[in-house]
Design brief:
It is built from three helices and two strands. It is mostly helical. A two-stranded antiparallel ribbon has the order 1-2.
Length: about 110
C-alpha cells in the first residue's frame, strides 16, 4: 500500500494508512474511551444539576487526564511501530509529522 502525505493548510493529510494495533491494545483503548465517554456524560449531568463549579472542574481535569493517557498509549505505539517502520523505509518526512503531532498534544 502506497503511503501518501501532503501538507494542506499547515496540516499533514494522510491517505491509505492504517494503524497496526493489536487486539489487546484496541480493547484497552476502547475500554478507556468508553470510561471517558461516561465521564463526559457525568460532567454534563453535573452541569444540568447546577453542581458547584469546583466539583465540575475537578471532573473535567480527571477526564482530561484520562484522555492524555489514551494519547500517550497511542503515541508510544506510533513511535515504536509506524515511525520506526517508515524510518526503516527511508521516509524521513515522518519526523516532521511526528513533531506536528507532539505540538498538537502539547497545546492546552
Amino acid at each position: 500500500m502506497e503511503q501518501i502525505t501532503e501538507v494542506i493548510d499547515g496540516r499533514l493529510e494522510h491517505c491509505d494508512r492504517k494503524s497496526h494495533h493489536s487486539d489487546t491494545v484496541k480493547k484497552n483503548l476502547t475500554t478507556r474511551l468508553n470510561r471517558i465517554e461516561g465521564q463526559i456524560r457525568g460532567i454534563k449531568g453535573l452541569i444540568e444539576k447546577d453542581t458547584y463549579c469546583d466539583d465540575v472542574i475537578t471532573q473535567i481535569a480527571a477526564t482530561q487526564s484520562a484522555l492524555n493517557s489514551v494519547a500517550k498509549i497511542l503515541l508510544e505505539g506510533h513511535l515504536k511501530g509506524c515511525v520506526v517502520d517508515r524510518l526503516q523505509e527511508g521516509d524521513i518526512d515522518v519526523l516532521d509529522e511526528l513533531l506536528l503531532t507532539v505540538q498538537k498534544l502539547m497545546k492546552k
